[in-house]
Amino acid sequence: MALPRFHRLPADTKAALLAVARAHFARDGKDGASFNRIISEAGISKTSAYHYFDGKDDLFDEVVADAAARTLAALGPWNEAAAEDELWRQVADAHTRLVTQLREHPEDRAVLAGQPHGHRDGHAWVRRLVDNGRRIGIVGPEVDAELVTVATIGVLEAFDAWALERPEGLDRPSAESLTLLLTRLWR
After folding, report:
1. Which residue of 26, 77, 93, 106 is 20 to 30 Å from 35, comparing CA positions?
2. Which CATH architecture is the domain 4-67 placed in?
3. Which residues form the HTH tetR-type domain (predicted)?
4. In the Cβ-directed half-sphere of 155, how many Cα atoms lie within 13 Å?
5. Is 108 exposed, middle or buried (0-12, 13-18, 19+ CB in 10 A)?
6. Which residues make up the CATH 1.10.10.60 domain(s) of the chain?
7. Global pTM?
């Protein structure tokens, strides 16, 4: 991740540097992107760049974290559902927001594709979803709550990885598939 000095930069300077890096990583991949070309295009000297990052891997990690944060912001908070149909509607709406975010920001989709998931903020959202499902009776009590949550996270991460690797999949309605997978897992 970025060194502390990067986080002290003005927000617009950080955003500009990350936008240039995101474009390079999305187009060329992590291995194909050149740290020197990125910092040159961003108008940063090599000396300055090493005050902000230990190298290309740190810059890439920061770009991925930034894309993940924006994607999680698009997801929005989980709001307690009072009934099963309301819960599934919220899941479908969240799915639509994520698809819209990734369609409108293909560079984010490209840098997130193939990356390990496991962002704690996303896990908190899933925990609230599963807890809500338990309270309204659509997540069965037979299995330990933590195990159901971990399994749900696994299903969602697999679904995300599948969708991120197939940009054309963003054009197909897949909320129904997600609902079917979760329903079968939970019952």
Report:
1. 106
2. Orthogonal Bundle (1.10)
3. 11-71
4. 18
5. buried
6. 4-67
7. 0.83
